[in-house]
Amino acid sequence: MNSYEKLLAQAKQDGPASKSDPGRNIKKAVATSKWKLILSTITVALLIVPTIYMLTFIYYAFGTKSTTLMDITSYTMYITEPNSTLEELEFDMDFSLFSMDLSFEQFKQIGDEVYPVKTYDLTFAFDELVGKEISSRLEKAYPKYPTETNQWLVHPKQVPEFSTADESLKLAGLPEETVVEAYLSFNDLYAVKDVVKSMEGVDVAWAAVYTGVEDKMLSADGDVVSPIGYPVQADPTNWSPFKDAKSHEDVFLDMLKYLQPYEEIAVDVSAHKNLELAERIDYLEKNGFMSYGVVVTGPKNEVEKLQNNPMVRYMKLGEVKLWNWTR
């Protein structure tokens, strides 16, 4: 017996009204079935949505995914953004269906104080970065897409696009009661410890590391690569991977190795489009660490003196703030 015959038999059993108008009862039964189907669909949907949300939350929060993505993001910032630091408590996570939003602030040391300079809002769909918004408070922005010649820190074999004479005039024109950030490029490769000893009166905040490709800024495959380096100053921040580190160079190398399997995510997170980590890790393990440039910060007059340092070949002025130097 098919469905129609069942409905007809049911209508006949419902009494006199059914006998007088079987069609009405059939329509009523069909309508009831439709509503049951609609309610069942809604019920299933209402159960599926929170279930998916819980699975997403478990995927990110109770597994290692959220921690891994936070580590990838923070490590990438430390090694690709000169003179940058992050704060653990500034990381905000929000979960939605199949995705996680990660928001945080990036800081810079300018003079004796640390200032918020950028706000990042990232959206991950599982492990893939699908959205990135950056709000900047910087007066001067480091090149978003570094090329072979527009670096602010350049290898001794390179000539920058900026004029160091113009940068010197800008620095000289600043009031005495200012602190500045400056990008200093060397005339040779130097050990960072020797650089720090030769630059009294300022903080050496970040060192660009030579990894075998910076003389041309090209990888072995001919792709433009981006500068990488590490913070030089001791970092007391609990979140920092450099906190209480005996060797910042060793921590830096460990960070590169950690990022290597996630290089695609690291490239998406940063403004830099080619890191070539395998090639650079191999070079550092075989040849050690030398720097071709550093970021310093301190009183305007002390930074001016560094232009006479025999190591320094080029100078690019960065951020400027009112006097906050208390040493």
TrEMBL record:
Residues 27-114 form the Sigma factor regulator N-terminal domain. It comes from the Bacteria. The chain crosses the membrane at residues 37-62. Residues 171-319 form the Sigma factor regulator C-terminal domain. Keywords: Membrane, Transmembrane, Transmembrane helix. This is Anti-sigma-M factor yhdL. It comes from Lysinibacillus odysseyi 34hs-1 = NBRC 100172. The lineage of its organism: Bacteria, Bacillati, Bacillota, Bacilli, Bacillales.
